[in-house]
Amino acid sequence: MSSSPTPAPRSSVRRFTVRRRRLALAAVLPLIALLATSCGYGSRADKGASGSASPAAGAKKLSADEVRIGYFPNLTHATALVGVERGIFQKDLGGTKLKGTTFNAGPSETEALNANSIDIGFIGPSPAINGYTQSGGKSLRIIGGSASGGVKLVVNPKKITSQSDLKGKKIATPQLGNTQDVAFLNWLKGKGWKVAPQSGKGDVSVVREANSVTVNAFRTGSIDGAWVPEPTASELLAAGGKTLIDESSLWPGKKFVITNIVVSQSFLKSHPDVVQAVLKGSVDTNKWINANPAEAKASANEALKSLTGKALPAKVIDSAWPSIRITDDPLAATLRAEADHAVTAGLLKKPDLKGIYDLDPLNKVLKSEGRPAVSDAGLGAP
Q: What phi, psi does 380 have (nearest 5°)?
């Protein structure tokens, strides 16, 4: 009969246990980091570092070392794409460094703003409204406009030839509660069709998916169309789709806000000089875009190539670019209407939007250039 093994000293057991725990932790930490990176902000974030730039040598620093700006790799965010790519924002910021981060849709960017991961964002009206109301009016302010238009419902013409054919079909939007999602749900409600706002199930199936996968989903037939911003809309057209609705046609004067500039209230309070510099960069960029449309289109495409790994084909960007109007005006009156659309869609209770705008910094920039002030439609901060 063999004798029982002699137990190891407690100190040896303790050292072994510590080593084993350290090895396990070392194995787990990369996985945690990977999960954090892949999840990003929100359910369908598509976030990545973008055109950050170093200030010019000797440039005077403002009150912050760095300003973190969020935006989308969409042509409806052309102000950010071009302003960052051409260094216009960085020039106006002087020695304060710009750090850019991109997102797939507004709700994820709003979460980043609320989590203090970005300071300023280019964002659609619906996520701005949601972020403001859900925080009791304490999270953000809209400080400027950027773009109007550039949104279409593109469908498979073999399956859908009229609006009535949408019943029973699968139509994509970029994310639950984003501006296009709200617009589509509101439009469906106006047609008398029933769709559960959270699940997207009903007479028409609303499929929430990132713009980056929508075109392939359309090609494979897993969706029948999409209510999306540019350039995704024109990518769908190039893939054989047909425009069923241009959202501009649904608005008086064909004007509606699609992209605002927002800032966290804490950053606005602590660094008003940085905020004004960003707005100066926005105004300078918009002026250059509108004066140089061909060059601006090429610059936006170069920025998209840097962010996504490939430029848009000429056929796509040539189709998309004319449908977007670049503007400093936030078109505040249309924000009220978009808030009503979210209520109609069942995604929002009647909001109190008083105080959502602070356009004083923008109007100072416009005044310095001899231009008229823009209106907050009675929704300005006290």
A: -80, 160
